[in-house]
From TrEMBL, chain A:
Gene3D superfamilies: 2.30.30.90. This is Ferrous iron transport protein A. It comes from the Bacteria. Residues 11-91 form the Ferrous iron transporter FeoA-like domain. Keywords: Iron. SMART domains: FeoA. It comes from Bradyrhizobium sacchari. GO terms for molecular function: transition metal ion binding.
TrEMBL record, chain B:
This is Fe(2+) transporter FeoB. The chain crosses the membrane at residues 227-248, 283-307, 327-349, 361-389, 401-425, 460-479, 554-574, 594-620. Residues 5-173 form the FeoB-type G domain. Gene3D superfamilies: P-loop containing nucleotide triphosphate hydrolases. Keywords: Cell inner membrane, Cell membrane, GTP-binding, Ion transport, Iron, Iron transport, Membrane, Nucleotide-binding, Transmembrane, Transmembrane helix, Transport. PANTHER family: FE(2+) TRANSPORTER FEOB (PTHR43185:SF1), FERROUS IRON TRANSPORT PROTEIN B (PTHR43185). One of its GO terms (molecular function) is GTP binding. Its main location: membrane. It is a multi-pass membrane protein. One of its GO terms (cellular component) is plasma membrane. CDD domains: FeoB. SUPFAM superfamilies: P-loop containing nucleoside triphosphate hydrolases. It is found in: Cell inner membrane.
Amino acid sequence: MTDHDDTRPHMPLGLALRGYTGVIQHLSTKDTGSALSDIELESRLIELGFVEGARVEVLHEGLVGRDPIAVRVDSITIAVRRREAMAIIVA
Amino acid sequence: MEAPLLHLALVGTPNSGKTSLFNALTGSRQKVANYPGVTVERKEGFFVTPLGRQVSVVDLPGTYSLRGRSPDEEITRDFVLGKASGETVPDLVLCVADSTNLRLTIRLLLELKRTGRPMILVLNMFDIASRRGITVDVERLAKELGVPVVTSIAVRKGGTADLLALTDEISARLAAEPQENSWRALSVSELRATQREADRIIADCVSLPARPDTWTARIDAVVLHPVGGLIVLALILFVMFQAVFAWAQPAMDLLKSGFDALGELVKATLPDGLLQSFLQDGVISGVGSVIVFLPQIILIFLFILLLEDFGYMARAAFLMDRIMGGAGLHGRAFIPLLSSFACAIPGIMATRVIDNKRDRLTTILIAPLMTCSARIPVYTLIISAFIPAKDVWGFINLQGLVMFGLYATGIISALAVSFVIKFFMIRDYAPAPFMLELPDYKLPRLKSIAIGIYTRAKMFLQRAGTTIFSMMVLIWFLASFPQPPAGSTEPAIDFSLAAMIGKALEPLLAPVGFNWQIAVALIPGMAAREVAVAALGTVYAIEGGKEAAEQIGQVLATKWSLATALSMLAWYIFAPQCASTLAVIRRETGSWGWMAVTFTYMLVLAYAASLVTYNVAVALGAG
């Protein structure tokens, strides 16, 4: 996993396109524009399995503005809007 | 002495198969009510263990944690902690997990453990996990977690035998166990730490296959395709409405002839007079005209429950999220709004899945504009009486087209109202997050669905037996008294209280083309829309004799102009004619104010729509 970190730039999952695969590096809930408070957003993301080290894959995108996205997080699939996915930093 | 009732509570994440386990344990021995003060559904069931212990089990709302971020989740938390008012602390908590997806449940279980409640982890859907090549070292998992673990297959006969045996075993030594609660709300870093701990335990005890469920991936490739997915969704909705209208017809005809025969029987057995009139006009034709819709209600709930069990509803919300977002609605509002096509009451109650207050309020306000099944009798009656059953452009039935138009107008108005609310009333608006698990597809469980439909049908019949029955008695009374003086030649109803009320209201309703008979029918129709049909029947029956009641459509065709009929249709798209819906809005919003807002805006829209429709129709020569 560490060599993975070195070779790929960090980016928010909210910018990833369909087919992207990567590993969650950390959560950064500042300035995502979500209606939730930073702490609430971070708690909810963790509760849905978005924790450091989890493998993610963008499986599907919505029709309007490629939003929301369906993300495979290890063994489950979560639908999330790109705005909230901006808090998930992947590489 | 017999052992006291053992109290169990089912806790689990959404989609963990909690409800099918609940159904498997209790069968139809279920009681559905509300928790005091909140409108969260409280489902309790009963069963007897192999050793003869009487057990009560409560199916708590699904949750990912004990933080309690919605009324449903607060109930789950308070119930487990023994803080829910009027509830017994559960003797034993069953934490239910989908065996194919343990991550989130194990984290929840680690949090639950801190409450000190005796607990069992139930690995449900174990057969599906085995088939997919997932193996679980159950003994090691129990040791690592410090909690007994048992596997179960809720949908198979005998699939809960191990769980029942373990319940007996544990309940025998319950009192000996210390119960200390060290739970408090977790901080973000504690949350992260428990998830790490859960992942470590899973890595030690569970081996996952290299590839995920291929069926779900294959179906999603079509169903979640940006364009293809929307086409599939439209097709599903189309089939659903076709079914509700076409497939239900034979059963409805059967019910209708049954009630007609019953009415005839009463007419033949009883002497002419008040009692005969009361039973035939008031009770049988009144209540019967509503019960006839039972097949449609069953069908629409069959579809909704099937789609939910299959796992499609979450996909529908995903597809519709941004499209509905354009009108200021949340993707999760799709399910409540879809349910509102059956009835606004379950729809409004289903808005609890929306955790942002403003999104939820908007959805509640527009849910009654969705064409509910109670409008169908009114629409059907007027359309079949006034709209010719001819084809337009060779293949589209004109009656069906009008019906479609009424539905479409309802939907478009709902979106427009939502847009107006977003624009004017709720300005500082940041869209609430849409975060939803898309569960793997599962074959719907027929037993669970049967129990679900049974519960809803029972609710509908109870309503028909109470609210609607009492309204019909009231209408019959108003239309029958005072009795006409002996020797009068005019219809009896002209002397009644109903006629007085109707005639008093007539000046108000004359601009939209309604006569006093309609005014009379609209009064009980305020209690429940479908009652208006029966009320019109009663009014015209008592006015015109028994033949009129049997052919109410034909009577209307001779008494109303086309413009009046169209105006009535327009009125029914909007009118807030359902006391139960208004009561539920008050309960769910916790405010008389929002109930008044809903009532007023719908009434204004109804009057305006009827006014325009009537005057345009008259101007076009349909008056």
